[in-house]
Amino acid sequence: MTTLDDLPLRDDLRGMSPYGAPQLDVPVRLNTNENSYPVPDAVVEAIGKALQAELRDLNRYPDRDAVALRAELADYLGHGLTGDRVWAANGSNEVQQQLLQAFGGPGRTALGFTPAYSMHPLLALGTGTAWVDGRRDASFGLTADEAVAQVEAHRPDLVLLCSPNNPTGTALDPAVIEAVLATAPGMVVVDEAYAEFARPGTPSALTVLPGHPRLVVTRTMSKAFGFAGGRLGYLAADPAVIDAVQLVRLPYHLSALTQAAARAALAHRAALLATVDAIKAQRDRIVTTLRERGHTVADSDANFVLYRVGGDQKATWRALLDRGVLVRDVGLPGWLRVTAGTPEETDAFLRAMEDVGRDPE
Ligand code: PMP
């Protein structure tokens, strides 16, 4: 049998395994920060109609520039944005890959502040961009001074910030973003996949866009919109940044079906985004309950919560799975991450955690 070792694979990919959380068939799946609520019937119907209307024309390539969709995404974002300042692709992962292809690549460097979204270093690897693992403090905080010192030390071509940060859940102080922008010699990308879940008083980096052509804010319909299966991510930036990603995007990367489904979903955004408040309520309930039980819990502006289990998080992860609850071991010793889902899922998670208990620190 031929194995990977027999193929002339790139040296830097040898010995690696594909990224991905376990997709296990268990009653309570709280491990990938999906939106637990299914698409409402009225929206299912609207998306169905929109897809149907495309089918006869599937002999033709789709609108390569996704002009209508981008204008509608700009309208959703507000902040005076227009379609020429927005770009869309198959998930914000693809958007970020395009940014690294355009602004990173061989001989260039990207800096992120670990722990953050674990795909960022992998996207750097895939695009041949050198990755620098920046540091956070012991409680996962990042001050403007610390961030600036690391940007000055490494002079990266791209800085990747994640706010609210995955896996910690906490949004960045906007002062950090502004300080990094003032110092960074290259592009500054703020990954705002969870922006819609932020606690009040957490401004989006979109507010900083005017006058900052090297700032890019990435968003997704995978979380708040409950549209992860639709694969639609997007960015907002100066029109010149959109010119840059168009140099590396594949022609017709967004299928006619994806564009039509996303537009129908956006047209029904009130119904889809109606789940956000319910999810935030469960998020806050998880934070409060775990703290009452003595766990250390990171502040969350997202649809998930990072909490300390003490001892060996792998054992707690397994014990929760044995009770039908799948959470995420993000590889931080002593910590686990749980997605906030429906009230029933939160009940099941909190019950299982009570059962499993907390190891003494
Ligand atoms: N950024 C962050 C911080 C994420 O957590 C995720 C999803 N796990 C993504 C981006 C990618 O999401 P998508 O490709 O579905 O838009």
TrEMBL record:
Keyword annotations from UniProtKB, A to Z: Amino-acid biosynthesis, Aminotransferase, Histidine biosynthesis, Pyridoxal phosphate, Transferase
One Pfam family from the record: Aminotran_1_2
Entry-annotated residues carrying N6-(pyridoxal phosphate)lysine: 223
Molecular function terms, GO-annotated: histidinol-phosphate transaminase activity; pyridoxal phosphate binding
Pathway: Amino-acid biosynthesis; L-histidine biosynthesis; L-histidine from 5-phospho-alpha-D-ribose 1-diphosphate: step 7/9
GO biological process: L-histidine biosynthetic process
CDD domains linked: AAT_like
InterPro entries (UniProt xref): Aminotrans_II_pyridoxalP_BS (IPR001917), Aminotransferase_I/II_large (IPR004839), HisP_aminotrans (IPR005861), PyrdxlP-dep_Trfase (IPR015424), PyrdxlP-dep_Trfase_major (IPR015421), PyrdxlP-dep_Trfase_small (IPR015422)
Transmembrane region(s): none
Record's catalysed reaction(s): L-histidinol phosphate + 2-oxoglutarate = 3-(imidazol-4-yl)-2-oxopropyl phosphate + L-glutamate
HAMAP family found in the cross-reference section: HisC_aminotrans_2
Oligomeric and partner information: Homodimer.
Family of the protein in this entry: Belongs to the class-II pyridoxal-phosphate-dependent aminotransferase family. Histidinol-phosphate aminotransferase subfamily.
Protein name per Swiss-Prot or TrEMBL: Histidinol-phosphate aminotransferase
Species this chain originates from: Micromonospora pattaloongensis
Gene coding for it: hisC
